[in-house]
Every structure is written in structure tokens, then in C-alpha cells.
Amino acid sequence: MHDVVEGYPGDMPDLPPPVDLDLRLVHSFTVIAEHRHFGRAAEALHITQPSLTRQIHRLEQQLGARLLDRTPRGSRLTEAGQVFLPQAKALLRAAAGAIARAKAAAQPSRITVGYTTGLIVTPAVREMRHRHPDADVQAQHVAFHDVRAALLEHRVDAVVSRLPFPTDQLHVTVLYDEPRVVVVPLDHRLAGKEYVTLDDIADEPLPRLRESDPAWSAYWRIDPRPNGRPAPDGPLIDAIEDKFELVAAGQAVAIFVGHNIQALRPDLTSIPLDGVDPAQVVLATRADDHSRLVAAFRKYARTHLSRPDSADPTRS
């Protein structure tokens, strides 16, 4: 009979058996699943197609299941591949989060502040650097649809953005409200009015982002309207910035925030939109993050960013 040594694995809680799974192979599989083609996936991974084929074969051996079938048009997931794909993505996210958490623990004097398009965090970041000269304080742009993921994946530690976005597992502090406006070309029938209502733009098409969160799109298009009518569909666009060109060309109107749109486009003007709730600019952090630097930045954000003039007047 073997003695059990205190503190040694013999008296530890039951742990899952070790798993021999190469995460690089898992990543390669997710890239193929995205492209549905070995050749295009190999190009995206910057490796040869035979090398990628060998990687997937090794992964299938490790799992004991066939994940992909090749077809004349590319490749398709087997039933096992369909089941494994969401688990593979979750596994890669968990690994990235574990690495980020370990780095954060090893570098407690580091904070990365995110900001979305049209919002300025400089005053709070400068105060942070002034008050914490030994800290590594970075600022990084974050796509509006990526706020929650950027935080939970530890790519950033705080983000200044506009609602709406998913806020579960996040701590959200409202910094200030912004009135929403309607942006039109200078020769539009509504240009020069003191304010407009949703009835005034009831039949005006609004651009639609091709890839966007449904809640975000509905909020900025006010879709449906209070009377239940859907917002008129305008052209599809790939980037928020494309709205300006469509509006200037007379193909649509847009709902934005801020009044000084002419600072960016002299051929456009904005009109206050009456009868709708203002947009909210917020600071979001991870709910379980008790870092002293995050707490400090929250304080400086409330002090320096809680005024509309802290933001870009052409914010979108």
C-alpha cells in the first residue's frame, strides 16, 4: 500500500484525465470550417494545402472521429464536425482567456482602454498615465459589435462605447446622454427645420449594415416604429462611414448623434429628432475585474468623460 503525501496529487480532488489535443490543429479546423475549402483555408493560414491536410488528419486521429468530407466544390462538415465546431471555438476562446488572465496577473500594472468610433478617451487616459506613471496604459479602437467579446477575451480592460450592446458579465457606468439627430443633405426638404419627428421621416429609407447586431441595428434605425410600422429599408452598407456618402447622394437619411455633422461633411446637416430617447455613452468593464487600475480608470472616466464635449462632435 502506498502512503499518501499531504499536498501531493494523491489527496487532490478528482481531475479530468489528461487530453492530448493540439490547439493549433483545432484552430486550423475552425478556419477550414469558415472557408469550407482546404485551398482557401491553407492560404488564410499561410501554409501549404498538403500540410493543412496532414494537420486535420492528426486532429481526427486525436479525436477518433472524421470531421470533414471533401467534395468537388470544397469541403463540408461531417456530423461529428458540426458537433465539434462550437466546442472548438469555445476551447480556443477559453485558452486565449487563460493566457490573457495569466499575463494580466504577471503584469498587474497594465491596462488597455478601448473606445468605439467617434468617442474620445484621451483626457481620462492622460490622467491615468499622470496618476500612475509606472503603469503601462494603452488605448485601442474596438469595433462597435465587438465590445463585449473584447472585454471577456481580455483584449481590453475597459471600453467607452454607446449602448446598445450585450452587457451580461459586464459592469456598465453611464457617462452621459446624447440627443439623436437626423442627418440629411443640405438640399433635403427637411434641412433647416428646428426639429423633426419620426412621422417626418416615416417614408425615408435608412441604410442597413450588412453585418451588425440586430439589437444595434434596430436601435439606430428605430425599427419598428412606435406605431408598429417597420423602418423603411435603405441600401446595404459594409461600414458605418458609408452612411455619409449615401445620405449626401440623396439615397437615404441617417439617425446619428451630435449636431456638428458639417465639421465632417459640409454637404450634410443634422436636425434634432424629437420624441425619442437619447443615446447613452457608457464605460464598460468586466464585472469580476477588481483591478486597482480599472477602478482608477472608472473614476477618471466619470471625471473627464462625463460631458458631451468629451466626444467627437461628428460622432456616429
From TrEMBL:
List, alphabetically, the Pfam families matched. HTH_1 (PF00126), LysR_substrate (PF03466)
Taxonomically, the superkingdom here is Bacteria
Q: Say if the entry is tagged with keyword Aminoacyl-tRNA synthetase.
A: no
Give the UniProt keywords, A-Z: DNA-binding, Transcription, Transcription regulation
Q: Where is the HTH lysR-type domain?
A: 21-78
Q: What InterPro entries does the record tag this protein with?
A: LysR_HTH_N (IPR000847), LysR_subst-bd (IPR005119), WH-like_DNA-bd_sf (IPR036388), WH_DNA-bd_sf (IPR036390)
Say if the entry is tagged with keyword tRNA processing: no
Family indicated by similarity: Belongs to the LysR transcriptional regulatory family.
**The protein, known as:** LysR family transcriptional regulator
- The species is Streptomyces rhizosphaericus
**Organism lineage string:** Bacteria, Bacillati, Actinomycetota, Actinomycetes, Kitasatosporales
